[in-house]
Amino acid sequence: MFVNVWSLWLVLLSAIVSLVVAFLLKKKVSTADPGNEEMVKVQGYIRDGANAFVRRQYKTLAIFVGGLAIVVGIIYYIYPIETEGTNVKWWVMVLSFIVGSSASAWAGWLGMKVGVDANAKTAQAATKGLTPAFDVSFFGGAVMGLIVTSAALGGVWLLYYIIGEPIVILGFSFGASTIALFAKAGGGIFTKTADVAADLVGKIEYSLPEDDPRNPAAVADNVGDNVGDIAGMGADLFDSYVASIIGAMLLGYSVSYTGLFDLANADILASFPLVISAAGLFASIVGIYVISKMKKTSPGKALNSGTYLAAALFIGIGALFTFLLTTSSGIDTSGSGRFENMSDKLWLNYGAAAFGVIAGIIIGLTTDYYTDDSKHPTQAVAESSQQGHALNILTGFSYGLMSVAPPTLGIVVVMGISYALDGVIGVASASTGMLAIVGTIVANDAYGPIVDNARGIAEQGGLEEDVIALCDKLDSAGNTAKAVTKGFSIGAAALTVLALLYSFMEEAKLLLVDTDFVTGLDVLSVDVMIGLLLGVMIPCIYSAVLIFAVDKNAQVMVKEIRRQFEEHPGILEGTEAADFEKCIDIATVGSLKALVVPSLLSVVAPIVVGVLFGVRALGAFLAGTILIGFIFGLLLSNAGGTWDNAKKYIEDGNLGGKGTLAHAAAVTGDTVGDPFKDTAGPAINTLICVMSLTASMFLRLFVGINSGEGLIQLGTLIA
Amino acid sequence: MFVNVWSLWLVLLSAIVSLVVAFLLKKKVSTADPGNEEMVKVQGYIRDGANAFVRRQYKTLAIFVGGLAIVVGIIYYIYPIETEGTNVKWWVMVLSFIVGSSASAWAGWLGMKVGVDANAKTAQAATKGLTPAFDVSFFGGAVMGLIVTSAALGGVWLLYYIIGEPIVILGFSFGASTIALFAKAGGGIFTKTADVAADLVGKIEYSLPEDDPRNPAAVADNVGDNVGDIAGMGADLFDSYVASIIGAMLLGYSVSYTGLFDLANADILASFPLVISAAGLFASIVGIYVISKMKKTSPGKALNSGTYLAAALFIGIGALFTFLLTTSSGIDTSGSGRFENMSDKLWLNYGAAAFGVIAGIIIGLTTDYYTDDSKHPTQAVAESSQQGHALNILTGFSYGLMSVAPPTLGIVVVMGISYALDGVIGVASASTGMLAIVGTIVANDAYGPIVDNARGIAEQGGLEEDVIALCDKLDSAGNTAKAVTKGFSIGAAALTVLALLYSFMEEAKLLLVDTDFVTGLDVLSVDVMIGLLLGVMIPCIYSAVLIFAVDKNAQVMVKEIRRQFEEHPGILEGTEAADFEKCIDIATVGSLKALVVPSLLSVVAPIVVGVLFGVRALGAFLAGTILIGFIFGLLLSNAGGTWDNAKKYIEDGNLGGKGTLAHAAAVTGDTVGDPFKDTAGPAINTLICVMSLTASMFLRLFVGINSGEGLIQLGTLIA
């Protein structure tokens, strides 16, 4: 059925090369020197804590995924996929769902394992100098980046190659999204529970330095970095990556229903996001290779150069692949323009993808202005801290609000241009383009927590001051890199869920073509406005639940830390070991328990809206969540980032440094910002992705109720 | 032209009766005992400070209003109103605009004057007992309530009676909105600048009690209550009240274009919101009378009973008026149902209005759960304060997020039902119904700051402890009353701007009827999505600018207070008078300066969107601001309320009371909450109202550019 099967082989090839490189790098990490006995011990605690958390999390997930698989099976048994040319059995969808969740779980687990392994080894390598330390930590992160992309792209390729229907990949994406929800939100709660508790008691009450081994929450804090910032982040980007691909594939495939192109050409367009992604993956691999070979005088610059290089290579390789595709046989070039000529259409979508990757960098750099401590906003937050806690909070929050503007304008420009290139398909291509170099993005993002942990282990392992200073230097490189990669996550998140919304509505239009249902989402209709209102409500509740979870668990852990200090005074004197496991246990149990409401909310809410108010209300509901989620994601992440860096700015000796009111206030801001930027903020993206995919997965159910009008049939209240 | 002119006379009568009662009550306040010399002196400071602020504010306003009047004149000269049966000269619109702004400015100034007068007199009356003190303060607030309603309703009546075209009232409403923007945002910045600065230095650094006369910011704080919570609040509700009426009138009048009813019946429907409002005004007057005659054992209950009574009376009087109207001659009862029978249509809209007022009460009571200190959320915030500043902030913010749910569900239900009754006209009627008893609402709302100020003057005037305790009791009654009235403001704000959005689009449809422009707001279109994205961005910037203004001005004032304490040690010892005027001046200059950006933003932003992206994008832009404004308004107001009450809960002696870490943390929360709940939160509503009215006022300009597609013509990018 595929006219250009060679392009699909290219996709497989990229996944295989990526996997091979990942295992080569993994070997480099695993053969590195693990350091002294104390370091091995601490590293062992972290590894065991992280494994224990992931094991329990996956057990819970198994039940959740199993339950959902049954529901998916029932829905697709009752409402089978049987449109023209498409006939997918219910169990294929279930299988796809399970494969998706398994692939994501596997990639997250393996990537985290390597990340944990790289922690202590980075600290040890730092005793030998900057380059070896950078290599170990960067390779550790790169493994995650390459495994995520190869598992995602390989999985999508396999399903598409075997079954040949883009819609089946929806199940894969839904599976990956389910994992991301647990990994991101659960990991986010875990990591901030430990971080906040460690700060509240250790830093503020007992004035212990960061990562002090006497702090019973110190190891839990390190575990949190691994399960939240590495495993959670990986699962999140796995989810976005696959979702952006499936959104674009479904929209591409929808041209087959327009009658403008034949089925073979629709297949070419549907598989084009895979070709784009393969180009990005090859670019990422080269980028990673170049970074590892660069001189490491400035590790931050090395990471950013790698990202820019990957982006440039992606644009080049993407052009090459597009050229090969548009000049191969079977391409419909009978007419001209995007409605008649598939070659033109592919070039336009390639343009949108290339523009997407450039926009990602620009959005990142402009947004970074609000959190960079050499810029006005962060310094203003630090200065206002001199007037106390309240003004620190107010100033940081206000800059968080202001920081919404540049990315919003960025997204508006990207949307406008990519839509002009090829309508909603163009928007989807822009999101695929932004996420194409996700291998590099994940590698750079995972590098951060690895060196952060390395610093902790160096401290706990009693390494020299200059080694710790080197770790600090590596750590600040991570922040520099994050400035750029952040833009991709923000931009891609918004565009991806928009693409999912578009594909949801396209699919609905198709299923309702024989009814008198109109699928536009007119804001002036009552069902659409009600959907929007309910949509903007959900991320508020979700954020609140997550922040509460951190808040509550941190209070439990604070009590435990105080208990240990009181009952065992030897801990503070350094003569007795703190009970790390108790703190890890509190974070593990607390975060998994706290996931019940958010995970149910994310699946149940869209189903309730769809069943009660119908397809249009559900589309509007998704649009509402996208709008508020975009704003809240930026506000929470950037306010948190500004507070964090304002604190670091003061700790660097500015405005009187530690021990001042300004520092105390800045620590308050940082603590408030922790669950903002690392729990609620990033998890909102996952929430919206899960809700969008839930809507698409269960679309057939909603269409079955009063021809998509829902039980209440609000849309028909008024003619 | 008006078939049922008697109903319009009824409207005039309600405005006159209201004005007469207002002046009777004003006289009662002005003849009350002004208290001892010290009190007269403090009262004089407050009066002079408030007058100075208002005078300067009105001067700035005169320039702004004058400039806008010229723009309005030019636009209506170039694009005159000349549709069928309508011919309005450009200068009529300008006049209407100026009358609207003057009426609002006059009502706000007079109401504030009486409020300021009632301050010291309430304190003095408190020496004689609860009832006399309650009466003075309640009468002071009631004057504001009655003057606002009579000026608003009287002004609308006059314009409608003379010119007979609902569209002219748009100018009146736009004028009122301009004043509200300055009064609400400017007053909000003023009041919180003083409050935050007074708390930061006085309470936290020097442990002075609330309202201590040694605090140089004490008088500025009192002035702030008057200019922000009385004058600002009055202008805000004047604005919402008129906007809800004009939204409903324009939508009602739009039936004349459907051809379903004749012009006379369209007029009846267009004037129905006035009849509904007159019913509400009569109900408010009776409610105020009954409150003033009730036994005052529990002043909080008295205020709430008055609100419930006014609501019940409104439902009764509204039914009577509707009955009279539907049985008078000229009503089209030829067919049946809302499309053929005007009598049925009026009854359905009466139903929506009655439902609106009930929903207002329910929304208020459920939302109140999150800020009431006898309920779980506020107590949980207080408890988390024991773990320090950060957890206080996190817990309060989370409850603020949660508090979004009940009113959202409330609005969804009101919208669903009122839409089912009569479509968008029904929704507009529900908003008119909610705001019909605005006289009572404003009276109860203005009561709060009056007694708050009375407490301050009692403290500064050296009155006995039990008098201050009585003032505290009166103060807490204000909070109880606010619990119910708040629901009306929230619900009415959302529904009113929705009604304005609907009438904007109806008007656009009419003006573009001869083009191939389609006026639905399809979220899936790129111009609509871009409009939505830009719409959700603006309230973020606006909130940030307002919070920054408080933040920055408070820092200036903090420095001034410290300077006074350092250079004049006698102030703290009580031997030297603090320089109050300097602080008042800082707040005045700072808040007016800070208004430049937000006021330009509110008028320029919708014009830019309309000119560049066209009418649909502008409609979506408004929808975006409504959605995010609704959420932010609730989040900021309720988080602020919870923090405020958690602090009071601790100050009442719970959890160790004053002097504990919990108290210090709770003060931080309260200070953060101040600009949230009293500056940014409530001003967002005004912003959205101004933007909606700007869109409607300049609609003819946007329609003139590429047939409403805007300069960029995004909507035509893709067929």
From TrEMBL, chains A, B:
Annotated site residue numbers, Determinant of potassium independence: 482
Main location (coarse class): membrane
Topology of the protein relative to the lipid bilayer: Multi-pass membrane protein
InterPro entries with a match to the protein in the record: PPase-energised_H-pump
Keyword Transmembrane appears in the UniProt entry: yes
TM regions (residue ranges): 6-25, 61-79, 91-112, 133-153, 159-183, 241-260, 272-291, 303-327, 347-370, 391-417, 423-443, 483-504, 524-550, 594-615, 621-639
Subcellular location: Cell membrane; Endomembrane system
Listed cofactors: Mg(2+)
EC class: translocase
Reactions this protein catalyses: diphosphate + H2O + H(+)(in) = 2 phosphate + 2 H(+)(out)
Residue ranges that the Swiss-Prot or TrEMBL entry lists as coiled coil: none
Pfam families for this protein: H_PPase
Source species, domain of life: Archaea
Keyword Ion transport on entry: yes
Alphabetized UniProt keyword annotations: Cell membrane, Hydrogen ion transport, Ion transport, Magnesium, Membrane, Translocase, Transmembrane, Transmembrane helix, Transport
EC number: 7.1.3.1
Assembly and binders: Homodimer.
UniProt record similarity statement: Belongs to the H(+)-translocating pyrophosphatase (TC 3.A.10) family. K(+)-insensitive subfamily.
Job of this protein: Proton pump that utilizes the energy of pyrophosphate hydrolysis as the driving force for proton movement across the membrane. Generates a proton motive force.
Protein name: K(+)-insensitive pyrophosphate-energized proton pump
Native source organism of the sequence: Candidatus Lokiarchaeum ossiferum
Gene (UniProt): hppA
